[in-house]
């Protein structure tokens, strides 16, 4: 008989969303809040923005907590876990969403820039997952969902280190999924295409129009659409989906 792990209603679960003060992360938090889950909103510096997301989540009936940590630091993540433990909050679902973009010629990349992009986009996934997965393993149920990028699959000119970091997230997800599957914990990556967020705010109207023309769907995606996929992967009935890199991109990459 297959052990599907603990029986727990989605509304009774706890989710930790990193980088949840804006954009896709904020919408993911709101999506989980809409079913009354315990929602932990992580941020690094955007205190007021995180509180605003928290207020919206509470309006939806969720129990909410905001936590600040530099995810490049194992010590800070450990302290964040201790704080959550003291409030009886142990994430059943971890959404590794925190990330930073980098655009520029590879020949101009400094070692410090490489380190920062790798630390925020990839090392943080390693550290957060390693610290929060033991609880999931012990209860034989858990969901680890890593927000990646279409560039981690196909690569992008002038976004070499960002593409490399997100490619690492994809490979990490595939490999760890095999390791944790016997424990009832799934690991998947969501690799969005072009989405209307702060990361696309630097493009002017003409640049956005050219991007939209390349996308068969004829438009950019919305953070809400990405959040919907993340939510689906977190459901108890999605337990047979693991080790996958799913790219919602409007047909841009097939």
From TrEMBL:
It comes from the Bacteria. GO terms for biological process: monocarboxylic acid metabolic process. Its EC number is 1.1.1.100. The keyword rRNA processing does not apply. InterPro entries: NAD(P)-bd_dom_sf, Sc_DH/Rdtase_CS, SDR, SDR_fam. The keyword Chaperone does not apply. GO terms for molecular function: 3-oxoacyl-[acyl-carrier-protein] reductase (NADPH) activity. Keywords: Oxidoreductase. SUPFAM superfamilies: NAD(P)-binding Rossmann-fold domains. PANTHER family: 3-OXOACYL-(ACYL-CARRIER-PROTEIN) REDUCTASE (PTHR42879), 3-OXOACYL-[ACYL-CARRIER-PROTEIN] REDUCTASE FABG (PTHR42879:SF2). Belongs to the short-chain dehydrogenases/reductases (SDR) family. This is 3-oxoacyl-[acyl-carrier protein] reductase. It comes from Fontibacillus solani. The lineage of its organism: Bacteria, Bacillati, Bacillota, Bacilli, Bacillales.
